[in-house]
Amino acid sequence: MKPKTKHNFLLSPYQDAAFTRCPECKGKTRLRKFPLVIHIEPRQLFVLNKKCKYCEKCDLIIVKQIELEELLATSMENVNPELIGNNYLVFGTVDFKDWKETAQRKTYSSDFIDKVYVFKDVWNVEIIPGGWYPSEK
Length: 137
What we know:
The protein contains 2 helices and 7 strands, in the order ββββαβαββ. It is an alpha/beta fold.
């Protein structure tokens, strides 16, 4: 069975880039909450309802890596402190209805993975600082 896909995703390693404009279409981004599905090594599934920058035209969710890691550490502090600092992968989203239902139960049933929308594409962006650069010959 082919997974359901939705949204493009960008995990920004830049602390000082606000992404008020989309890196692709240059349109304004808006703040919007998304329940992000995150796999934390070893074998831990976690859903984080997070405010993200979003470009509706490009269907792009932008998350600052530093903010995400701070929220993950805070969330895991009392529940699974041994997972803090482990490798993780943000691989999709779920509908708010499914997130609320799961959050109330605090467990993930085997059918939960069928409700996950895997990202269509994961983008990488390189920011080139403004300034004067010599012309290339």
